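Summarise what follows for lecture notes:
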Amino acid sequence: MILGNASPWRQLDLPWDEAPGWEGIPWDREARPSLDEVLTVRRERQAMVGQVMESLTDEQLASDVTRTEPGWPKAEKFALNECLRVVLNEEWEHRLYAERDLTAPEKES
């Protein structure tokens, strides 16, 4: 929402399990990308978030964003700083998953 991109989704994107599904958003649960493909997308996304955060001004942080195109998210006057919280929370939760669950097989061996 911050960048105003009406179609930010990549072919490997996968919404959360309980998401209702939206036109134009990838939904391929059978996709099995290679580690290199996943890491390439991850690096691109991390760089994009870093660039956005570096360029934000106090005025922008206090502003609202609106997205009315079909799909998700769809919101009017959504606080830009709340958008950042969503991204940072997602990153935090993914890290917790990786540190907790992806090391579980190592601990069981």
Notes: The beta strands are 64-67, 75-79. The chain has one domain: 1-109. The mean pLDDT is 85.
